[in-house]
Amino acid sequence: MVPAVPAASGFVVTAHGRVNLIGEHTDYNDGFVMPMAIEPAVRCTVRRRGDGLVRLRSAGHEGEAVVDPSRPLEPGRRDWARYPVGVLDGYAARWFAIPGRDVEIAADLPVGGGLSSSAALEVAVATAVETLSGRALDPVEKALLCQEAEHRFAGVPCGIMDQFAVTLARPGHALLLDCRSRAVTHVALADPSVAVAVIDSGVKHDLAAGEYARRRDECRRAADRLGVGSLRDVAASDWPARGAGLADDERKRVAHVVSENARVQSFAASVDCGDFVRAGRIMVESHWSLSRDYEVSCPEIDALVAAANRVPGVLGCRMTGGGFGGGAAALLRADTATAALERIVADYHTATGRVARGFVTAPCGGPEVAPAAPAG
Ligand code: GLA
User: Which of 106, 203, 305, 337 gives a 20 to 30 Å CA spacing to 50?
Assistant: First the structure.
């Protein structure tokens, strides 16, 4: 799709965050994931400026970044701007002309809450570049460019889920993504009797980045030992028989990935046929597999999930995202969703002394472009 010509006053790109419903730590194992885009978003307002420079400012962060997109952009920044600068570099390398612009970034997506604020920022900037140049990459290429920016410029070896979810989301649907073939199936999630909620635990452990890279390595090593290209190739029917030669930790990691891939399929089928009770149960199983076998939860998130799963009207709740804090995703009965959320927040506070924040969200679409209001 060729983007529309921007208005003279400039334009605003909105890119939504995502919550992963199921399929955690499976994307970098070539497996299956099922995220959806959520209402909170990153917004980039793009306006002309006279020189050829791009100036990036973010309402949520100190400082600004001024870059000359006609010169090679090098990784090495340590601030928030490494994400957008990485994206500009990706487009420059693909011969997109990037004119000078002021880019103001604002977001109602919490940073570090496991809701892909970085992917939303990357995709918003990518959409801005495409809008300015009047040509667009195929959405799959666009998502991969954003992932590459995160790898090269932010040093985060993330899988493909977040950028795909933010780029390819469709309103009223979750995305079932095969991370090997990159095939996307949009699964309708618009039954008015159920709601999806996101609950931020208010906890973020520093372990997250290091442990993420460690899990990736453990999975790589386990796949090598099992003689498969990736853990995706270990069939649930072969497991656990094939795990005999693995170390304890490796066996647990593989057990999670193999069972989680099977759960994504069952979850998608349950949602598709409207069996939300079953879908909720599968989410709960996913959580305890992540906690016990993959060991990426933490006591606070376990307490949050345990509290949520005791509340009437909650069909299922699990941790979501990379882990070690962040948030949980819940499937709830819509008519009691607000009361259930209040109860979860109260019970979590009683259990941990911490304050969680939750909200109900509809499944949203991919990035949108609209004219900017005249500058004030
Ligand atoms: C982070 C990464 C994703 C994915 C999840 C775990 O959010 O960015 O690619 O690996 O962790 O499922």
Answer: 106
Pocket flag, ligand 1, residue 164 (CB < 6 Å)? no
Ligand 1 atom having least distance to the Cα of 322: 11
Q: Provide CB contacts within 8 A for 147, sequence distance 6+.
A: 158, 159, 160, 162, 163
What is the value of pTM for the model shown?
Answer: 0.95
* Structure confidence by residue, pLDDT tens digits, 280-294: 999 999 999 999 999
CA of 273 to the centre of ligand 1 (A): 27
In contact, 333 and 192? CB cutoff 8 Å: no
Report whether 21 contacts 254 (CB < 8 A).
Answer: no
**Ligand 1 neighbour 162 (Cβ under 6 A):** yes
Give residue-wise pLDDT tens across range 220-259. Answer: 999 999 999 999 999 988 898 888 889 999 999 999 999 9
Instruction: Kindly state if the Cβ of 305 falls inside 6 Å of ligand 1.
Output: no
β-sheet bridge partners, residue 101: 48, 54
The pair of structure tokens assigned to 223 is: 């796949």
Residue 265 reports pLDDT greater than 80: yes
Q: Whose CA is nearest to atom 5 of ligand 1?
A: 322
Residue 25 Cα, ligand 1 centroid: separation in angstroms? 6
| Ligand 1 neighbourhood includes 294 CB (under 6 angstroms) | no
CA–CA distances in Å: residue 50 to residues 44, 53, 59: 19, 8, 23
Q: Is there a contact between 315 and 282 (Cβ–Cβ < 8 Å)?
A: no
Short-list 357, 344, 259, 360, CA closest to 306: 344
Burial (CB count within 10 angstroms: exposed 0-12, middle 13-18, buried 19+), residue 1: exposed
